Amino acid sequence: MLLDNEMKNLLARVRTIAVLGAKDKPGQPVDMVGRYLIAAGFTVFPVHPKRNGVWGLPTFRTLADIPEPIDLVDVFRAPEHCADHARECAALAHAPLAFWMQSGITCPQAFEILKDTPTVVVQDACLMVEHRRLLG
């Protein structure tokens, strides 16, 4: 886990966020976090293979479909899918600053896949909570 000052510096650099597993179903953690990120001024790219227009935004099927570089990949997927998403992240033309697995999500394979890239891996931490706490 990053130290607070490292996490604060990382989050201060983030402008664009891809939310993997995005859905705008009220009461779901992904909906609360996605809406928070939008309200906090981030450019948010919802990513979901079947949903369209999440949070009223264009929704992409994969990370590779997003037309601009992403600073942070926020993962709301079960741990068994995280390694594949880490590979997808590693294949992007512009490496994100962070691959962030939300509270309750851990995946040692994601660390292995991304360890030789510039992308920092964060696991089992809520992006909304940490952003509020460090940059609130």
From TrEMBL:
Residue stretches spanning the membrane: none
Residue intervals of the CoA-binding domain: 10-105
Pfam families in alphabetical order: CoA_binding_2 (PF13380)
PANTHER family, alphabetized: COA-BINDING DOMAIN-CONTAINING PROTEIN, CYTOPLASMIC PROTEIN-RELATED
Listed name of the protein: CoA-binding domain-containing protein
